[in-house]
Amino acid sequence: MKIKALTFAIAALLPVSSAWAAPTMADLEQRINDLQARLEHNEQAQQEQAKQVAQEQEQADNNPLFEFKGYARSGLLVNEDHQGATGTGPYMTAAGAIGAPVGRLGLEDTNYLEANFIHNRQLDNGANARFHLMLADGVETSNDWTAEESDLNVRQVYSELTGLPTFSGAFANATVWAGKRFDRDNFDIHFMDSDVVFLAGTGAGVYDVQLSDDWKANFSIYGRDFGSVESAGTDIENYIATMNNHIGQWQVMFSAMDSKDNDRVTAKAPASKRANHGLHALFAYHANSFYGINPGMSKTGMLIGSGLGAELKSIGSDGNLNDDAKAVRLFSFGTTDINETWSIAPAFMAEYSKDRILNHDKYKWATANVRLSQAFTENFEMVYEGSYQYMDLDNSQTSATGSYYKATIAPTLKLSTAAGFFDRPELRFAVSYVDWSSDLDNYAISTQTDPKPATMGNGGETLFALQMETWF
Amino acid sequence: MKIKALTFAIAALLPVSSAWAAPTMADLEQRINDLQARLEHNEQAQQEQAKQVAQEQEQADNNPLFEFKGYARSGLLVNEDHQGATGTGPYMTAAGAIGAPVGRLGLEDTNYLEANFIHNRQLDNGANARFHLMLADGVETSNDWTAEESDLNVRQVYSELTGLPTFSGAFANATVWAGKRFDRDNFDIHFMDSDVVFLAGTGAGVYDVQLSDDWKANFSIYGRDFGSVESAGTDIENYIATMNNHIGQWQVMFSAMDSKDNDRVTAKAPASKRANHGLHALFAYHANSFYGINPGMSKTGMLIGSGLGAELKSIGSDGNLNDDAKAVRLFSFGTTDINETWSIAPAFMAEYSKDRILNHDKYKWATANVRLSQAFTENFEMVYEGSYQYMDLDNSQTSATGSYYKATIAPTLKLSTAAGFFDRPELRFAVSYVDWSSDLDNYAISTQTDPKPATMGNGGETLFALQMETWF
Amino acid sequence: MKIKALTFAIAALLPVSSAWAAPTMADLEQRINDLQARLEHNEQAQQEQAKQVAQEQEQADNNPLFEFKGYARSGLLVNEDHQGATGTGPYMTAAGAIGAPVGRLGLEDTNYLEANFIHNRQLDNGANARFHLMLADGVETSNDWTAEESDLNVRQVYSELTGLPTFSGAFANATVWAGKRFDRDNFDIHFMDSDVVFLAGTGAGVYDVQLSDDWKANFSIYGRDFGSVESAGTDIENYIATMNNHIGQWQVMFSAMDSKDNDRVTAKAPASKRANHGLHALFAYHANSFYGINPGMSKTGMLIGSGLGAELKSIGSDGNLNDDAKAVRLFSFGTTDINETWSIAPAFMAEYSKDRILNHDKYKWATANVRLSQAFTENFEMVYEGSYQYMDLDNSQTSATGSYYKATIAPTLKLSTAAGFFDRPELRFAVSYVDWSSDLDNYAISTQTDPKPATMGNGGETLFALQMETWF
């Protein structure tokens, strides 16, 4: 490089044209030839460098060495007596104890965080190793120093291999993984803070095995802990084997589970007999439109399960299920823009379960939720949410039937209201009114198993919230 | 791109001049035209690329997608009997219990960490969303595995929106935020490890509302927790509304607070009556010079408060204040270079408070601290610190009056001694001698409320420290 | 920039050659001169930019502002009765309590993580400040939410200064540091999950003092905590002074330690008399070949220690050592490729110690381990491990002698099997058979000091593992 620079420098000092000798045509031609050669050289260098810069940028954008991703919400929730609200949240109703959510807007008091630190290692042959670490925390206190209350913990730590050159056929585009993780294909109804299906734990598996042109399947084994058997000096583990199929826009997911040591009776949860086994299935349709009637998205489906599979959302995570437990759940939700100003996101979820915790218990609930957004400017929108839940709960000894209602209005700031329901961060103020049937006030599903169960208390409360929510 | 490259390649193969046909003037001219066009094209490409590279660099420098920032100190503190020192630190005196600091150099035994993980999302229109997560920890143990002692916790988790295109007028340059955070405009006297004002908690607010050419104001609401009321099943929250004004170099900050359920008596803190309300004000002058007499910086001001506002530093964080509590605090500090070798940083803080925890208690203290640095080379300096504190403490039942003295000398390594008092990291060895009036040995402000209060013990101790301190 | 662009634009509009006026030779020459000047200018800009891009890339590669580094393993361990395995791991034998490891493959049930967040600050003069933070966690549970079990903690937090321009002579290439850290020159036998030497704690030191051409030395002081003396209100600290020499391929490391307050008797560990002092030495040879007979690597050496130095691996970390404790340890391990398919990694470690915890106790153990890998494709290999440990244990009151055996076979996926034993991540399935002499079943070294000591239980077990292991 130095030699070349020197050459140019010397060349610049030489007389290229002078008064004392008129140039000949040949001289000029030679100079043109020289210039052309240099220009070509320079053009090449320029193009190579542009390519290199673009490659580096693409690498940095698409597959950076390091990624920081997260979800967080944090804020204040104040009741009408300007006291901190307690006991509120999307699982605040009596049916919340068995996983029945209501609309979340304006009800959340927790400061919750998921921080993901991701390392990618990519070989030139395209093989990629991805390491994923998630730290998470959730506290209610508004204070900044939370060492006492801290729940900071490692929720995910796993590695994935993708694009292995020796994988071929059905496995050509497969991703293999092992460690502790949330399953990649979990999905949620954000407005209710409820996953439709939440498979998580420690294990190993493979994604995207191509069984036919239109059929991809995932296979996995996850382990979970239910606690420990003191007499045996061993943990109670639950092993979940799952096959998850994506056939066009349909999803069909089967899970079977086995927990050898779970058929015990603990003081805290006197199941008639706790389940050792479980079966679980999910059928879902992922539409690219709002129920075929408008642009947008919608997802609809059903979950069924028995035994340990009767916990329909968090597959295999509940060891207190009865041997005979049976449950079925329906869900549907979607989002669409009505016009330039208004967007709507209805959501529905309902479940029927029986012999769930004790023989002869029976639980029915259904939640309907609508979130609406009304854009006023590029950065400001009003968000509205109405939520209703019907409950018919019978824990085999006492029962209660009734309804829960919530209405929320939330002035909201965001970077771009046009970007839709799922653009974050949102900074919001929210006012909510919540009420419910008085029959439900003192009812608790766990009355038989928990000496001091939490109940809904009295309804008819106004709540004020200041909150940020973000993901990236 | 490929077609163009091919064209050039073919062009390079064509005879541009040959022996069998002399070029005409027109040929030459045509070739010059061609070269010129190509050169212009190349110049443009070069300039565009330079612009792109510069933009990417600027983006990476000024507003990177991810930022890692932190503060940490870690080291050993050994006493003259080569034992681990305990009970030392900037709040080691009897008055430390009510927030009276002394000079920190050579007294700190804790391994303290603040690690910030920041995500920026910037739109092309300049609107920016900033997510801020802070993890913090503080332990005394010198061991590496600290799971038992760990205080690791989430101290901040918030989102900010800046540069919203629809904000105009006084709000044109405003930043809005919500979540859990340290207020942006907190500032400290580093040498005493004491914030002048430390407003923190969970809430929402807006910065930099331009009320006139020279007047910016911040508005915020912060919530804090004082604990829980078991009988009521509710948390005791304190809500703090603040207006913080920057008028030229003056700062005027008003805070009012309201904690509805705090007027209770706990076994641990029998206040005459705990306060439900509080008022707090800060007046400060931020000078761009060392008290107008030398280049450097200095800050001087006063804080006053009553009720819950009588905790003057950590606004609204102390629920154990008496209904009648009153407090006033003065502070001043600055830094300047005396010459190429010596720099000086004097600091002063004093407080008078009464009816603070119990009726008729009365506390006076004043701390004077001087830190000096003497640069020997680009990387080595001697740092000296002298600290004095006067205390006149009356907890309404017993009283003590006396003084605390400390002298420290600290050989210090750093990247650049010329960069001043606030350049970090510093790796330091420190020897300190601390002593105090024997009257203070067994005195504790909390004698009435804490059955086994910590006391200062005997003075006259030499301490040896090995420590790193950094921020970035 | 804009003016220049405009100039070019205008120039492009001007007629550079036309039909109505034939150009002269001088015209052409002038145009060639112009073109040449512009080309030279452009060439320079191109070269400068290439240099700049290369510099930025080099900075990003070699000394990035931020680095994320880590180690993690996570997976399931299931026994032949499809229960979660407990009590397994490289320290599962009776001698594990005094630090005797066996081969780790297929035995680990923990989800263990080390996440390092590193900040580099580099001055133009080459001086560099490096901040290092390590978070670590280790839990057994397979669940994702581990707040209850979490051991998340800060294991390292330190700063280093390198390349200080005022350092010269022997210190010219020295690195100085202070804070909490793992010593830089610790090294391990990965296959046994055992450091050969693990020096860690809080302190300060200097690396790479060049004592002669072939001799580099490190000096450091580390503090560690053994617990607290309640009567004295003081922590029991142990201070370790170390000189660590690298002379060619030889390493000679001396450590002396002093723990003034450790000569006490606690209920949990009735040492005849606990040690106040300790001496420790390591002699090691780091070979660039597999014992001189094949390409690869190998390390061989000896450790000896007395008093507090009798904990040979984790220097100065065990406060329960007897005043008369003496120990000696031998180790050797290496890795080499046998051919394109097979690689081998033998490892050996043995220790003799006496008067270790109580007077007249005596412990001998020796472990031999072989790991073999057999590459089948670029991404798949079979890994085999055989492990044997001999134990002759006498805790001064009861004794046991016997052997432990393990055989493991592990089908393994990785990015590149050709990259050798230390390339990660590895995703592995493993089947192991472990057995031991029945004499050892109920033996525990700590029988005299721990009322309910853990024992090996019965041998003859088959274990199944699904695991990822990574570092980067």
Key terms:
20 strands, homotrimer, 2 helices, mainly beta, Maltoporin, Chain A, 18-stranded antiparallel β-barrel, 472 residues, 2 domains
Summarize the structure in short.
Chain A contains two helices and 20 strands. By secondary structure, chain A is mostly beta strands. In chain A, a hairpin with a 3-residue loop joins strand 12 (277-290) and strand 13.
Q: How would you explain this protein's 3D organization?
A:
The structure is a homotrimer of 472-residue chains. Residues 5-19 of chain A have low confidence and may be disordered. With 472 residues, chain A is mostly beta strands. Chain A folds into two domains: 24-62; 66-471, Beta Barrel (Maltoporin, Chain A), CATH 2.40.170.10. The first copy, chain A, contains two helices and 20 strands. Chain A has helices at residues 2-13, 25-62, and strands at 66-79, 111-122, 128-139, 153-162, 175-182, 187-189, 194-197, 200-212, 215-229, 234-247, 250-258, 277-290, 294-307, 326-337, 342-354, 362-375, 380-394, 399-414, 426-436, 461-471. The radius of gyration of chain A is 30 Å and the shape is globular. In chain A, the strands form two sheets. Chain A has an 18-stranded antiparallel barrel. In chain A, strands 6-7 form a two-stranded antiparallel ribbon. Helices cover 11% and strands 50% of the residues of chain A. Chains in contact: A-B, A-C, B-C. Chains B and C meet through helix 2, strand 1, strand 2, strand 3 and strand 19 of B and helix 1, helix 2, strand 2, strand 3 and strand 4 of C. Chains A, B, C: This is Sucrose porin. Chains A, B, C: Residues 1-21 form the signal peptide.
